[in-house]
Write a structure and sequence with these properties.
It is an enzyme of class 3 (hydrolase). By secondary structure, the protein is mainly alpha-helical. The protein has helices at residues 2-27, 60-79, 86-109, 129-152, 164-167, and strands spanning 33-37, 41-48, 112-117. It has one domain (2-167). Helices cover 58% and strands 11% of the residues.
């Protein structure tokens, strides 16, 4: 049941990411800005041809391949139930949703549409909902690995109890 709920949430986040990118593209000219939460969060239409901080700029197919491999590896780990703890499952679903959101852009457009920025931190890069999913998933994944993996999901190290995802 928990896998189904996380899958639906991941699909919803993917849809939100794609909708927000379409909205920005249709309503804000490239490079223009708009207040969202004045002084805290703004909107800026940007085409990112690289990864975080425009690293690997122009390496579209390398980024497609790397993102595709990561999304596939996480999906296989979830499908084979190598990750069973609810926190690990949620982390994986967030990484898949965000990875697919940016992968769709790279394949379809050749770049990623970014739109969120911090006016109070001008050197921080512009980002999107998919980036928020990936970063949140990575943080949750690190917490899961550091505090829950050994006890719940490590093969040969479990105490024989039921799958924690079944009780969530």
């Amino acid at each position: 049941m928990f896998y189904a709920v996380c899958s639906l949430l991941a699909l919803g986040l993917l849809a939100l990411d794609q909708w927000s990118k379409a909205w920005i593209t249709a309503n804000l000219p490239l490079g223009e800005t708009m207040d969202f939460l004045p002084g805290v969060l703004g909107l800026r239409a940007v085409h990112n041809y690289g990864a975080a901080w425009s690293s690997f700029s122009g390496q579209r197919w390398l980024l497609v391949a790397v993102t595709g491999c990561i999304v596939l590896a996480v999906a296989v780990a979830l499908a084979r139930r190598l990750i069973r703890h609810p926190l690990g499952v949620a982390a994986g679903m967030l990484i898949i949703a965000g990875g697919l959101g940016n992968l769709i852009d790279r394949v379809r457009l050749g770049y990623v549409v970014d739109m969120l920025y911090f006016p109070f931190w001008p050197s921080y890069p512009t980002f999107n909902a998919a980036d928020v999913c990936v970063v949140s998933g990575a943080v949750l994944g690190a917490v899961y690995y550091l505090w829950f993996y050994e006890k719940h999901d490590k093969r040969g190290g479990t105490d024989g109890t039921a799958d924690p995802a079944d009780n969530a």
